């Protein structure tokens, strides 16, 4: 009996390790009904995190940016079904890079409407990636159930099309890849960046949302408005 139990444990341990490796998603509550969803990808030897936002409303959930690929996006939908027990009303993508739109196919397969700007739609189509379902104006307030969201285009920065999303009730700003975290030491991927206009875009965000208290960047820890200040300082060094 003891030997059989030992064999069973030896079988289950690698299975548990495999399941842990396959789990590519983490969901963290940062305010009532507001969550950060984090997915990961190996970049070289580094397991790199990528954040999006999940908003639970009285009329369904809103996903801001997909998971980083199909698998974490499927896991996100499963998490919402299991934990929030509500349908996903819509998704908003903040620009056309893979860490923002990599799971759109899964969302659309689940009949979830994906919104983005006209620029993002054009860039995604040009890259042969995906087709957005509909486009948004560049400064648009949406009301979903009991939750207001402001989708805002501050100008080119990290990419030509980067949007931010603000939740006035919670004073939470999802800065996406436009904003670096407060302790970042570099600007990360600048392949599609407009380094000349990026500082102006950050200042536009500061002026548009002066009451923002919590800033969530795409990569790195979320925190105070120091993230905006640090991003400007990093840009000044260019």
TrEMBL record:
Cofactor(s), names only, from the UniProt record: Zn(2+)
One Gene Ontology cellular component: periplasmic space
EC assignment: 3.5.2.6
One GO MF term attached to the UniProt entry: beta-lactamase activity
Sorted UniProt keywords: Antibiotic resistance, Hydrolase, Metal-binding, Periplasm, Signal, Zinc
Top-level taxon of origin: Bacteria
Chief location of this protein within or outside the cell: periplasm
Reactions catalysed, as given in the entry: a beta-lactam + H2O = a substituted beta-amino acid
Signal peptide residues on this chain, from the entry's feature table: 1-20
Location in or out of the cell: Periplasm
GO process annotations (BP): antibiotic catabolic process; response to antibiotic
EC primary class: hydrolase
PROSITE patterns per record: BETA_LACTAMASE_B_2
Protein family (similarity comment): Belongs to the metallo-beta-lactamase superfamily. Class-B beta-lactamase family.
PANTHER family, per database record: ACYL-COENZYME A THIOESTERASE MBLAC2 (PTHR42951:SF4), METALLO-BETA-LACTAMASE DOMAIN-CONTAINING (PTHR42951)
Protein name according to UniProt: beta-lactamase
